[in-house]
Amino acid sequence: MAAAYYSDSPPEKTRKERLWLGYSADNLRSKVKRGIVEGSQSPGTSTRKGSHKGSSKNLSQPTPPLPIGDDGEKKKPHLEGSVDGTPSAAIELNGKHGPSSIPTRAAKTGTDLYTISYLIFFSIFGTLARLGVQALTFYPGAPVQTGVLWANVGGSLLMGFLSRDQKTLSEENGSPMDGKVNDEEQGKTDERKLSAEQQYSAVKKSMPLYIGLTTGFCGSFTSFSSFMRDAFYALANALPVPIAHPSATDPPSPISTTLNVPRNPGYSFMAVLAVLIITLGLSMGALQIGAHLALALESYVPSVQSLSARKSVDRSFVVLAFLSWLAALLMTILPPDRPGGPMGNTSWSQSTWRSKALFALVFAPLGCLLRFYVSLHLNGRIKSFPLGTFAVNIFGSVMEAMFIDLRRAPVGGMVDCQVLQGMSDGFCGCLTTVSTWVAEIKGLRRRHAYFYGAASMVVGLSSFIVITGSLMWAKGFNTALCTT
After folding, report:
1. Which of 7, 177, 317, 445 is the most exposed, having the fewest neighbouring CB atoms within 10 Å of its CB?
2. pLDDT per residue as tens digits for the range 341-376
3. What is the pLDDT of residue 38?
4. pTM exceeds 0.85
5. Do 400 and 360 form a contact (C-beta atoms < 8 A)?
6. Dihedral of alpha carbons 92, 303, 188, 28, sign
7. For residue 12, with 0-12 CB atoms within 10 Å meaning exposed, 13-18 middle and 19 or more buried, which class applies?
């Protein structure tokens, strides 16, 4: 679960401890100034008693490193298992503190509820954004035929911006990096300043709104399973060709995949390398550009510092999240293009809204929540290898490969095909993520980063070769009943 803020030291007796939904603003600022935010020690600093060793739980999407300097060896001190030198599990309740410093059960329950609500809401809109970008960027004559590429790039760009931003979610008195330092902090080295920035990053990563924007929206906007699917299609010479765009005719015609001419296997090898290199390279570049934009626009970005304002926003998103999910479910049961519906179609066979978006929106929150909790429990197990993100990316790729086979198997009907399409776009699309993946690659040491990135792509692509390729090359693909 998303952890609530707490203090290492007993509160002052002359004032009441101000808790807001599990966050203690006064104690938090005091902790950051003293440099004792748990899990955020710089290298060589001993862990305080009661701190959480090894950062065994990841609270949210990781934060990319500061875009200062290109030489990885000259950057700030690095802690393995983190992205910006700050362990992923920045703030955890470990049950070893006095009762006065532990938030009430109601406060922690509220924090968990708000986090889940943000994840549900932003996973739905992240899925809509991904499907919309795919439709907009997949057109006749497109220079890149992988429609999910630009969604992955856009999500990575936003991830870099949010991870580096130090103002939008700052506390009432500003973030530790607002340029106002006291006399004791003057004269400190650059390493000390970077440590304060890491501490603030650790604090920010446990905020429900930040988790919703990064884990919820960015994670659902990008999709590792779709990335691996397109890489497999490039290898198998089956990448959809946008000769006949779905919106070019009335009624819409499916995109043709039969116009791909036979080619030498060497060309297929070059094609899969192109998809892998272009997607990885552009996504990592977008991550860094997003961080640069956060620095450049720091003076213009609005700041939400009022605790009361955040309280209102959190509560409103609880209602919005569950209403959005309920609306998607109701529209799936009664789609607008049903017979007799507002779109006026005469038969269920002409209904395409379910396969294009509606089923995906229903399954999207399930994939996002599963990714969040798996990463929360597994990402800290191996410091040099984010096991949680790797597990969900591979599992989602395996599931999508199975859904592709089932959609083309000569069994089932239209609704079955639409459900499987929704599971691919919604559940698998939100279960897997590229934005977190590239951020983790950027944060690991060079040797570990190459191993983690290569292992993810090799295992993910191999799952499609074994599962989908066995059907394609053995019996061939039947045309799916539902098309998007």
Report:
1. 445
2. 777 776 777 778 888 899 999 999 999 999 999 999
3. 39
4. no
5. no
6. negative
7. exposed
